[in-house]
Amino acid sequence: MLPVGNRKNNKFPFPRLITAAGKTIVAPLFFLRQLIYIIFNTHFYFILKPTLSSFFNLFLSAYNHYPLILQMVKREVIGRYRGSFLGLLWSFVNPVLMLTVYTFVFGFVFKARWGQGDPDKYEFALVLFAGLILFNLFSECIGRAPGLILANINYVKKVVFPLEILPWVALGSALFHSSISLCVLLIFLALIGHDFFWTMLYLPIVLLPFLLLIMGLSWLLASIGVFIRDVGQLIGMALTVLMFMSPIFYPLSALPESIRPYLLLNPLTFVVEQVRNILLWGLQPDWRYLAVYSLVSLVVAWLGLLFFSKTRKGFADVL
Known about the structure:
Number of domains: 1
C-alpha cells in the first residue's frame, strides 16, 4: 500500500493509490480513479487558481536559473556519450545515417513520391526526415516527463532545488540533438542543390509555440507521474499513436477532407506542416492558425507550470 498525501493533516488533496501485488490486475481502474479524483475534487479550483505572478513565473524561473540549466544540459548531453569511442560525434553520425537510409529506401528502392507527379527522388526522404526531427523532439521530452521527478529523488528530499527546471533541462538536451539533425538536413539540401528560401527565417517563430506546448505538457506529466506511475506506460503508447496520426509518413492532402480537421487536434500536425512549408517549399506560415496555436500553447504552458507548482508540495510525501 503506497500512501499518497499526509493522512494526519490531509494537506494534500490526493487519495491513496492502491498498488498491492494482489490488485495489479485492476491497476488501470485505480489509474482512472486517480484522474477522476484530480479533475472533480472540490479542491481542484484552488489547485489551479490562476494568478498573474504564476504567468510571469513561466519565463522568470528559466531566466533566474539559466546558468544551472545550461550546466545540467551540458552534463546530460556529454553523459549520454561518455565512454563511447566517437563521443559527441555520434550526435552527428546518427542523423546522417538515418537520412542516408531514408533516401536509399524510399527514394531508390520504393521510389516513393510525396506529391503526385513529383519527379524528385529525394523529396520523400527530406519531408520524412523533417517531420521526424519534430516528432523526436516532442517524443523525447514527453516520454521522459513522467519520470523526471522519480529519477531525481534526491532533489526532492535532501536539497532545496528548483524542480521546475527539470523539464527545461530535458528540453535543452532534446533541442541539442534536434539542432544537429536540422544542420544535417540543411547540409543535405545544399549537397543535392535544393533551393534555400528566405522563409527559413520563420523557423524560430514557428517553433516557439511548439516548445511552450512541450513544456506545459512536461510539467503536467512530471507532476502526475509522481502520483500515478502508470502514466509513463500510457505515454509510450500515446506517442506511437500520435506519430502515425500526424502527417509524418503521408501528406495531409492524402486524407479525405472530412477527416483532416480531426488530425489538426494532434499537436504535431500543424507544426510539422508549417516547418515543411518554410524549409522545403518556401511558403509562409499560416499566420491565423499560428496565432491560435501560440495562444493555446501559452495557456497549456501556464496551466502546466501552475499545476506543477501547486502539486509539488506532495512530492516528498510520496517519494
